[in-house]
Amino acid sequence: MNLIRKISRGDTSALEKLYEQHKTKVYRLALSLSGDPHLAEDITQDTFLRIQERAGAYHTDGSEAAWIMTIARNMTYDCLRRRSREVCGDMASEECGAPALCRLSSEADETDGAAGNLYFLDLLRDLSAEEKELVCLRILGGLSWSEIGRIANRSEEACRKRYERILKRLRAQLNDR
Question: What are 133-163's pLDDT values in tens digits?
Fold first, then answer.
């Protein structure tokens, strides 16, 4: 029986096991989209609370990892929208709504234990939100093209081609440095 089904039946040890399996991927996705290590920690915790609440709605025909990453992505964007409204009020300022990806300190590396985290995030700085999401779901989330396609509401092939174009652009940036 899969962990999510056990969670829907109230098994807290299954939730703990699921958390241990996916916490790093969820954290990295939230961090890459928000640029804030503290916010990413909160989103990671909230994601697993949401999973516990909605475990009964999970359809076993889908990918467990894709479902979890979709929840994490949606929670991150919701949080950023709420934060933007709180900070900006009614102002239409470009600075207010944009996550600051490179506002990270060495604390980010300590939080998830991944060397090169800052460098990776620095590379993502110039990508659009959709491009960041695609790269993060593939690299940090380790999702398949079909899983990414379902999350992004695009075909597998469209996601793969876009990813290849993004990587080509990032390689060119690396060569220019």
Answer: 888 888 878 889 998 998 888 999 999 999 9
